[in-house]
Design goal:
Length: 304
């Protein structure tokens, strides 16, 4: 049975906006948005929006009659999921989709990034405890890896500056990594809601592609018809830069760590998590780097 009555939290963000688009395009779902009372975000007129003071009692009232809650709030708000889970249980909500998007939380990875995962790990542990105590409650996490299209469009530090036709290649650019596009994450969320039994209280892994920086660079050059300017950097230098920025309180340190974790030659940090991926179950199609690049360029009206 489809989890049809859904509350989406964080609908104004990059991921939340795409999930809202997917939900409202599917007649199987009745969508309610939960926003802060002081939120200035604008939403489609046909979608129900609640802006309560977020006390336990108010949240319970907002959640009564709902089948599922999808949380796509900011990183800073991740600890607040405990409060949301408590209200969901009190209201009889059957499923809570955690804000667990990114690498699997059980993934060791780079030591410098572990503190950033602490809050998510604590929420995951709490969700497991509550599901064990309350048989009517379950949770789902989606490990998506790198948000590939978003990084291509918005974060040149990940390696590709499309307006300037420049690439920054880490080590030799041959380290494979797995990644998912934002629209494909929305597809997976819909898949979770349509397969409640198979996805109950599980962390599921999805991907749109597995690629290297060099494969992506070749795809960009082929489809733009331009030889891109290439800058080579070392992951070890990114790590040193990240630590220095963090010590000085400067911005960008965490991004240096993330890029190094994803692309460092021979680290294996971005591989080995995909053997049991849930692509087929959730309806996510795996594509080549060339196809992803074509989609991204087309979204800009820049395909040549």
């Amino acid at each position: 049975m489809v989890l049809s009555k859904v509350v989406l939290i964080g609908a104004s963000g990059t991921l939340g906006t795409e999930i809202l688009r997917a939900l409202t395009a599917d007649t199987a779902f009745e969508v309610t948005l939960l926003a802060r009372p002081d939120s200035k975000a604008c939403f489609p007129e046909h979608v129900r929006v609640l802006r309560p003071e977020q006390t336990h009692d108010n949240l319970v009232q907002a959640f009564i009659g709902q089948d599922a809650i999808i949380c796509t709030t900011s990183i800073a708000a991740i600890p607040q999921q405990r409060q949301l889970i408590n209200a969901a249980i009190a209201a009889g909500v059957r499923r809570f989709i955690l804000n667990e998007f990114a690498n699997p939380l059980t993934y060791g990875g780079l030591p410098d990034l572990q503190h950033a995962r602490v809050a998510k790990l604590e929420v995951l542990r709490y969700a497991r405890e509550q599901a064990a105590e309350y048989s009517s409650f379950s949770w789902t996490g989606l490990a998506t890896g790198h948000f590939l299209d978003y990084a291509m469009l918005r974060i040149p530090a990940f390696g590709f500056n499309m307006p300037l036709r420049k690439a920054r290649i880490v080590d030799n650019g041959l380290e494979a990594f797995s990644a998912t596009t934002v629209p494909d994450i929305a597809v997976a969320v819909i898949g979770v809601l349509k397969h409640p039994e198979e996805t109950a209280s599980k962390s599921l892994v999805i991907r749109s592609t597995e690629a290297t920086q060099m494969e992506i660079l070749k795809a960009f050059e082929a489809q733009t018809g331009v030889k891109w300017e290439r800058e080579d950097v070392r992951a070890v230098d990114l790590l040193a830069s990240g630590r220095e920025k963090m010590q000085k309180g400067e911005r960008g340190g965490m991004l240096d760590f993330v890029v190094a974790q994803l692309l460092e030659k021979g680290s294996g940090r971005a591989e080995g998590h995909w053997e049991d991926n849930a692509n087929v179950l959730l309806g996510v199609k795996q594509r080549s780097a060339n196809e992803i690049v074509r989609e991204v360029l087309a979204s800009l009206g820049s395909e040549e």
